[in-house]
Amino acid sequence: MNWFVCSIIALLCWSGSDFFSKIGCRDASDKYSHFKMVMAVGVVMGLHAAYEVFVGGVEISLDVILTYLPVSLLYILSMTMGYVGLRYIELSISSPICNASGALVAIIAIVTGIADPMEAPQYLAIVLACAGVIGLGFVEANEDEELRAARQEESNYKYAKSWLALALPIAYCVLDAAGTFADDLVLETLNEDSANVAYELTFLFSGIVAFIYTCIIKKQKLVPKMEAPKYVGAIFETIGQLFYIYALAGGESALAAPIIASYCMASVLWSRLFLKEKLSWKHYACIAVTFAGILIMGIYDM
Fold first, then answer.
1. Which of 68, 209, 270, 295 is the most buried (most CB within 10 A)?
2. Are 199 and 68 in contact, with CB atoms under 8 Å apart?
3. Closest CA to 186 of 65, 76, 274, 279
4. Is-contact 102 129, C-beta < 8 A?
5. Phi/psi of residue 115, each to 5°?
6. Sign of the four-CA dihedral 226, 209, 80, 300
């Protein structure tokens, strides 16, 4: 299977993960939906980790798990924040904000002085991604309540204007950027396959903790109809990660990266077509600016 097919599969899977995670977590009355989502991802990633170890022969040890633990926790915490945010804001807004983490990583690298010299378009990409996210926040915070209610009527889901709605995807962006930055440093000493298995096993442990807290301590029931989308999203997340690795390993990362980076636009498309989310032209303009920055960064991501 060539790099292009792998890139398209990764794009579709990660946008599918966004879509089904949104369906599984959007019920604002379920205060524990994010923990249930962590449980679902933990189960699926745990199964994949078992396959990698017992069938694929990937080596794993407690030392590797502990070495990679800070990175794993940053990623898991960021995803949990993202799942919480899906209760309070449209996927069309949340996904582009979350995907701007790449720009934040670049800023961290520049500030800390470890970034290699970049070309002018890369600096432009950082500016565009940050400007788009800031613009989304401004538009969302200042939108008229009557206009908000009118455009949300078709989807039958009403999202109230609040600081939390924006803070959660921004928290995802910050934590994911920190995880990516730490990932680059830690992977200098670890095998990538072993590190990925360590991450998946840590997610499995997190899922077990979430189960104990949600189902045993808080005595929450798991309704199959409500939980099914979470597990579909978790499967898409895991498959997407797998094909992302295959795509970049195909030797054409300069072409694969921008294709995969555009998955947030596919998420916006699915949310518009199937969730009936409708945004204002100002929202879409800011999303387009953010996407342009993400796409340029993807093109230069070698």
1. 68
2. yes
3. 65
4. yes
5. -75, 140
6. negative
d(CA 203, CA 73): 8
Tens digit of pLDDT for each residue in 163-176? 888 899 999 999 99
- The pTM score is 0.87
The whole-angstrom separation of Cα 283 and Cα 287 is 6
**What is the Cα–Cα distance from 128 to 263, expressed in whole angstroms?**
17
**DSSP states along the chain:** --HHHHHHHHHHHHHHHHHHHHHHH--TT-TTHHHHHHHHHHHHHHHHHHHHHHTS-----HHHHHHHHHHHHHHHHHHHHHHHHTTTS-HHHHHHHHHTHHHHHHHHHHHHT-PPP--HHHHHHHHHHHHHHHHHHHHHHH--HHHHHHHHTTTT------HHHHHHHHHHHHHHHHHHHHHHHHTTTS-HHHHHHHHHHHHHHHHHHHHIIIIIIS-----HHHHHHHHHHHHHHHHHHHHHHHHHHTT-HHHHHHHHHTHHHHHHHHHHHTS-----HHHHHHHHHHHHHHHHHHHT--
Q: Which residues of 126-146 are buried (b: 16+ CB within 10 A; e: fewer)?
A: bebbbbbbebbbebbeebeee
Cα gap 229→78, rounded to integer Å = 20
